[in-house]
């Protein structure tokens, strides 16, 4: 029996690795389309074709497109954290980091937000993103926020969440057509003004 167990375990390990690799291919294919297309325009047929698998494989692995999005967003969250960087007293670095993130993901996030009223299934995913953004802002500016009393801290955090929000980036980069450097300058100015205002409390 022991002689038979090893090959069986080896086969099971290979199958698990193959399944994991297939899942990654599908998620990568979906994320690539999400960065350039509207969510409701992305089809499972296209995802399957891009990933080199069948639609049935996509359905068996993830269930439906909404479930695929939920899993893809978790991967995207890791990439977003890496782009944004960690907490630092250098506010210019924080602004540069979040702009670096938005230059990659910002348009896709804006498209998802625009579709939220039409696709209730998106709410859970977007709420996750909102929570992640608030948590990142809280951690990134902890040195400043922790010096404030609870009421002032909450108000200051609200303001910083807005200043560092994807809509702020969109207004500057897409609507006003400002350069990355000009966008960074404005956002940095807003950060400093917010901190100065609440530091008086």
Any key phrases for this structure?
single chain, 201 residues, mainly alpha, Arc Repressor Mutant, subunit A
Description:
The protein is mostly helical and 201 residues long. It has 2 domains: 1-63, Arc Repressor Mutant, subunit A; 65-201, Tetracycline Repressor, domain 2 (Orthogonal Bundle). The protein is 80% helix and 0% strand. The chain is built from 10 helices and no strands. It starts with a helix and ends with a helix.
Task: Write the CATH architecture name of the largest domain.
Answer: Orthogonal Bundle
Low-confidence stretches: none
Range of helix content: over 70%
Largest sheet: none
- Strand portion, in percent? under 5%
Give the strand tally: 0
The span between the termini is 73 Å
What's the tally of helices?
A: 10
The tally of domains stands at 2
| Principal-axis shape | elongated
CATH topology of the largest domain: Tetracycline Repressor, domain 2
What is Rg? 21 Å
Output the helix-strand order: HHHHHHHHHH
In short, what is this structure?
It is built from ten helices and no strands. The chain is mostly helical.
């Amino acid at each position: 029996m022991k002689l038979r167990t090893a090959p069986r375990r080896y086969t099971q390990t290979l199958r698990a690795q193959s399944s994991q690799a297939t899942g990654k291919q599908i998620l990568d294919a979906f994320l690539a389309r999400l960065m350039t297309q509207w969510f409701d325009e992305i089809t499972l047929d296209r995802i399957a074709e891009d990933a080199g698998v069948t639609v049935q494989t996509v359905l068996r692995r993830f269930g439906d497109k909404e479930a695929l999005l939920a899993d893809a967003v978790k991967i995207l969250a890791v990439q977003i954290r890496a782009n944004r960087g960690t907490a630092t007293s250098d506010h210019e670095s924080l602004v540069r980091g979040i702009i670096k993130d938005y230059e990659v993901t910002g348009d896709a996030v804006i498209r998802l937000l625009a579709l939220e009223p039409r696709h209730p299934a998106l709410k859970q995913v977007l709420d996750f993103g909102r929570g992640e953004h608030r948590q990142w802002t809280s951690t990134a500016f902890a040195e400043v926020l922790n010096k404030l009393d609870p009421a002032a801290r909450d108000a200051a955090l609200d303001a910083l969440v807005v200043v560092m929000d994807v809509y702020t980036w969109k207004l500057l980069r897409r609507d006003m057509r400002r350069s990355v450097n000009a966008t960074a300058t404005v956002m940095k100015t807003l950060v400093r003004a917010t901190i100065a205002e609440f530091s008086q409390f």
